[in-house]
Write a sequence for this structure.
């Protein structure tokens, strides 16, 4: 991708520690969701299921939301217009 006539660096370049920290946090959330399913029995089904669903949902939804916000529509339009000129 080009910005101001210059080739921009890869979006993840120079963010290794932050990426690893984020991965560990969200992997722990997912693993905790899987772990709570170990408490699932026919007598106590609702609470472990809801907790597991909530943890797994957060483990997937938060990173997807953050990744989706990486490129704003205004930036994409400006880059497309600059590329066409």
């Amino acid at each position: 991708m080009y910005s101001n006539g210059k080739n921009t660096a890869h979006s993840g370049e120079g963010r290794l520690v932050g990426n690893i920290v984020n991965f560990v946090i969200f992997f722990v959330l997912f693993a905790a969701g899987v772990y709570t399913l170990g408490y699932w029995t026919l007598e106590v089904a609702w609470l472990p299921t809801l907790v597991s669903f909530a943890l797994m949902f957060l483990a997937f939804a938060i990173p997807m939301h953050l990744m989706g916000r990486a490129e704003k529509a205004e930036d994409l339009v400006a880059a497309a217009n600059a590329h066409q000129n």
The chain has three helices and two strands. The first strand starts at residue 2 and ends at 3. The two ends are 15 Å apart (CA to CA).
